[in-house]
């Protein structure tokens, strides 16, 4: 079996967010995500692609009882040290859960590495309770970050994003079929892929002009409750 793509980066993944640029990116991305996570007290959440659990902490802070799923055992070792329950699973196969087990589903920068991402959205629909929400976050194909990553993918033999597929907000939205209601569609984190102290320019002026060019594409979708349910 091929080594999971993130196994070799497990020990250094979180450390990037401690670099001068990484610290700024983390603060902005954290704010983007946590404002879309509801109160989770007394509720269960599923993190698809938990990784090291760095952003899963936002679910925990909101009161959710969280289960994390990932293909990388080495990444999940770090998530477990943060107190999360984890299950190793290949997302190209059905999720190992019963129908309507979860109140909220979260997935951040995991769908880019799947052969059939639509399957994950369909499986999320199955295991999500009616009225529950799915917060899907992906790397935006329209961002400066995606441009730089594509260039690196050409010239670097071993590169984590070499085979990744990036998604614009519209492309991400098209993964959602019948039964979903799109609540939020946007991009987030407009800093460029180099360190800058001019945060105000990028996060306000640049964002206002190029609103679809943030580093992250974000969809918040609700599983609709149909009449008779």
Descriptive overview:
This protein is an alpha/beta fold and 229 residues long. The chain has a single domain (7-223), classed as Rossmann fold (3-Layer(aba) Sandwich). It has seven helices and seven strands. It has helices at 20-34, 57-61, 73-81, 117-127, 144-155, 169-173, 199-209; strands spanning 44-48, 65-70, 85-88, 102-108, 128-139, 180-188, 216-223. The chain has a seven-stranded mixed β-sheet with strand order 3-2-1-4-5-7-6. Strand 1, helix 2 and strand 2 form a beta-alpha-beta unit.
SSE order and pairing:
Blueprint: H1 20-34, E1 44-48, H2 57-61, E2 65-70, H3 73-81, E3 85-88, E4 102-108, H4 117-127, E5 128-139, H5 144-155, H6 169-173, E6 180-188, H7 199-209, E7 216-223
Parallel strand pairs: 1-2, 1-4, 2-3, 4-5
Antiparallel strand pairs: 5-7, 6-7
Taken from the alpha-carbon principal axes, the silhouette is globular
CATH hierarchy: architecture: 3-Layer(aba) Sandwich
Write out the CATH superfamily name: Vaccinia Virus protein VP39
Query: Which CATH C-level class is it?
Result: Alpha Beta
Proportion of helical residues: 25-40%
Q: What structural class do the secondary elements suggest?
A: alpha/beta
Question: Average pLDDT value?
Answer: 93
Query: What strand order characterises the main sheet?
Result: 3-2-1-4-5-7-6
Round the Cα radius of gyration to an integer and report it.
Answer: 17 Å
């Amino acid at each position: 079996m091929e080594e999971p793509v993130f196994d070799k980066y497990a020990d250094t993944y979180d450390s990037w967010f401690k670099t001068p640029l990484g610290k700024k990116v983390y603060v902005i991305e954290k704010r983007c995500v946590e404002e879309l996570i509801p109160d989770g007290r007394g509720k269960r959440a599923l993190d698809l692609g938990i990784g090291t659990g760095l952003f899963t902490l936002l679910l925990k802070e909101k009161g959710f009882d969280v289960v994390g799923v990932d293909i990388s055992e080495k990444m999940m070792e770090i998530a477990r040290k943060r107190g999360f329950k984890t299950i190793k699973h290949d997302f190209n196969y059905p999720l190992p859960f019963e129908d309507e087990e979860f109140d909220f589903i979260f997935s951040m920068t995991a769908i880019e590495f799947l052969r059939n991402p639509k399957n994950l959205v369909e499986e999320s629909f199955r295991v999500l309770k009616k009225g529950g929400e799915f917060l899907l976050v992906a790397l935006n194909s329209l961002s400066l970050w995606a441009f730089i990553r594509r260039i690196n993918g050409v010239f670097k033999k071993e590169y984590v994003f070499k085979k990744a597929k990036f998604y614009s907000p519209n492309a991400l939205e098209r993964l959602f079929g019948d039964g979903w209601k799109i609540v939020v569609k946007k991009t987030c984190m407009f800093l460029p892929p180099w360190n800058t102290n001019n945060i105000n320019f990028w996060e306000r002026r640049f964002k206002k002009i190029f609103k679809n060019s943030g580093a992250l594409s974000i969809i918040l979708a609700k599983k609709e409750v149909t009449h008779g349910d």
